[in-house]
Write a structure and sequence with these properties.
Elements (H helix, E strand, L loop, with lengths): L1 E4 L17 E2 L2 H5 L11 E4 L10 E2 L16 E2 H14 L4 E2 L2 H21 L2 H26 L1 E2 L3 H41 L4 H9 L9 E12 L2 H5 L4 H21 L3 E6 L2 E6 L7 H25 L11 E16 L4 E6 L1 H16 L3 E4 H7 L6 E7 L8 E6 L7
Parallel strand pairs: 6-7, 11-13
Antiparallel strand pairs: 1-2, 1-3, 4-5, 8-10, 8-11, 9-10, 11-12, 13-15, 14-15
């Protein structure tokens, strides 16, 4: 028999486990009169068996301890009932979180783990997720010891554990998609610029792609226009195929010079060229202007070389070109229709550079610089010469123009 003091209630979870939850009184002692007559006064008496004969022995939270024979401890049903009554008497009954709240904890922990994994570096996200797995167990032990409230943490731990590979898999797929998109962007950008600039410049553009805007932005750059003098009279009466052949040789030579100096060959305008220095990437306004002037001088030198090489060929004419260079603000971006666009520039800077190129013929020069470009490069070139103010079509006020002396026959 087993007994315990005080009244009992129903509907609770046991929270007062112990190896001797009740006082054991063998039945034979009661029958033999060896127990005091008042021993059970005001006591709750439980009658039952505590040996294996009744097959009423169960594992309890005490099963982790072994008895003197090395077997896992089991507790008789009567003792379990006594432990339940003791829990009521001592106020150690255990409350348990409801299922909706338990699922809410699992979902919150999974979402939090996924958020940390996606937002933080992988190693840090995994570390936080592992810490998140340990926190529910620590919290459960704390509230159990402090408030006799039981939080089931295995579901939360299992949810976070499953979230780890799932989120890392999603992250991996996302990174692959981003990498694929980046490759497509690189392909598009390289395709766009490799036709205009040296491949090394195109690679630099890709590496610094965060500085490139195709949507449109105001920048300061140096614009150069070139044109073959008297192209109409030179090509008049000649077979188009012949004209195209020597024109392409000339344009190829000019393209080589432009690439060597880091210029952006933006447009072929018949026999003319529009080149930009400082777009889509700039090395600095001064450096851009200096490279533009050096490229202009080099283009004149290359034309002289082509003329000497073709001097004995009647099918290839002797060429003279004019160059206009101006530095200033302009709008750069993707220009065109919905179905066809190109990266180009617009603005007064572009217009003035074009007008300067057309002034070469009346002023009997080969290269003309604006005041803005001259101010930037005057310390870099000792052979600059001022030509005074010139009337430019489309502008009300005359503009100061300058030229660069190119040694005759220089290569």
């Amino acid at each position: 028999m087993h007994y315990i003091d005080h009244d009992i209630h129903s509907g609770f979870r046991i929270g007062s486990w112990g190896r001797s939850p009740v006082t054991h009184v063998p039945a034979w002692k009661v029958l033999a009169g060896e127990v005091d007559a008042h021993a059970f006064t005001d006591k709750l008496v439980l009658i039952g068996q505590s040996n294996d004969a009744a097959r009423d022995r169960e594992f309890t939270p005490l099963f982790r301890s072994a008895d003197h024979a090395g077997l896992r401890e089991e507790m008789a049903g009567t003792e379990i009932l006594g432990t339940a009554i003791r829990s009521l008497v001592e106020g150690k009954t255990v409350r348990e979180i409801t299922k909706p709240w338990q699922w809410a904890m699992v979902v919150f922990a999974c979402f939090l783990a996924a958020f940390l994994l996606l937002r933080l570096p992988t190693w840090l996200g995994v570390s936080c997720a592992l810490l998140l797995m340990a926190l529910p167990m620590a919290a459960a032990l704390f509230v159990y010891a402090k408030y006799r409230f039981w939080l089931s943490f295995l579901g939360t731990q299992a949810g976070v554990l499953l979230t780890l590979p799932f989120t890392l898999g999603v992250q991996f797929i996302g990174e692959r998609l981003v990498a694929s998109e980046a490759r497509e962007q690189r392909k598009e950008l390289m395709s766009l610029f490799s036709s205009y600039v040296d491949p090394a410049v195109a690679n630099t553009i890709w590496q610094r792609r965060g500085e490139v805007s195709l949507a449109g932005e105001e920048r300061v750059a140096t614009v150069m226009f070139t044109d073959i003098r008297s192209f109409t009279s030179i090509s008049s009466g000649k077979p188009p195929a012949e004209v195209l052949r020597w024109l392409n040789r000339y344009l190829t030579a000019m393209d080589e010079v432009i690439r060597e100096h880091g210029g952006f060959l933006n447009k072929f305008i018949g026999d003319g060229l529009m080149i930009i220095f400082g777009l889509p990437l700039s090395r600095g306004v001064h450096d851009d202007a200096e490279r533009a002037v050096r490229a202009g001088v080099a283009m004149l030198e290359r034309v002289e070389l082509l003329n000497r090489q073709n001097a004995g060929n009647p099918e290839i004419p002797q060429l003279r070109i004019g160059i206009g260079i101006h530095t200033g603000p302009l709008m750069a971006g993707s220009i065109g229709s919905a179905s066809r666009q190109e990266y180009s520039v617009i603005g007064e800077t572009v217009n003035l550079a074009s007008r300067l190129e057309s002034l070469n013929k009346p002023m009997k020069t080969e290269i003309l610089l604006s005041q803005a470009t001259y101010d930037l490069v005057q310390e870099d070139f000792k052979d600059l010469r001022a030509l005074g103010a010139a009337k430019v079509p489309g502008l009300d006020e005359p503009v100061a123009v300058f030229t660069v002396a190119v040694p005759e026959g220089a290569l």
